[in-house]
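Collaborator request, handled under Task 6.
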Amino acid sequence: MHVVRIESLDDPRLDDFARLTDVALRRVTEPEGGLYIAESNTVIERAVRAGHVPRSVLVQEKWLEGVLPLVADHDGPVFVGPDALLEELTGFRMHRGAIAAMHRPALPSVADVVRDARLVVVLEDVVDHTNVGAVFRSVAGLGADAVLVSPRCADPLYRRSVRVSMGTVLQVPWTRIGEWPAAGDALRDEGFHLAAMALTDRSVDLDAFVTDVPEKVALVMGTEGQGLTPAAVAAADTTVRIPMHHGVDSLNVAAASAVGLWAVAHAQRAR
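Structure tokens returned to the collaborator:
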């Protein structure tokens, strides 16, 4: 990549980095434009290591020497400019050194993602990018195999999701799954037992579920507030709850995923 020093924002190639704080805008323009934003040297390095290709990079002068080796094997501009100009472009004060506009990889099929998996998470309509990123970090850290997201779930490659995940969204296999009940049928065809994390009259405690844990489990997690839709609950083989105390009925979806993943992964390894 070659260094381009900017003194104005007239270059149309800078549009990839414009108004990064406008969530509604970026939610549409990034997927349609076939890109996502990788923020910080660590995340850029993980993206490149995963085989993703940078289209361009925006970097503060003081971080330039550290960024160039990460993208040395790729074509495209590395834009360098005054901090005030970069802040005007992006909408925030850059403090993580560099931002890369990465070409978005094609999503694999559900069958390809789960072929060798034993434990996956399904996120239904989770709309908060922070929660999505946190779930990916739990999946990576606790030894699960993949994440499947519903059509209306927040974009795992949105920069906040990537940042909160500490770049693990670039390492954990994931793809989008269809609607219920077809989504459940697709997972059962691959041998998965669907365990919906939900509060129903039929829910079993998590510790009871893992005493005889299935060989392959898909933990299905619902959106913030509402939880799983009736269609998702109806598609499940088992509904599972985390026992709570002091009148608290449930955990945040990111916290609940970590608890559920740890319990199931631990039980599966002990089989």
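The cover message to the collaborator said: "The longest strand covers residues 54-60. The chain is about 35% helix and 20% strand. Please let us know whether this matches your experimental observations."
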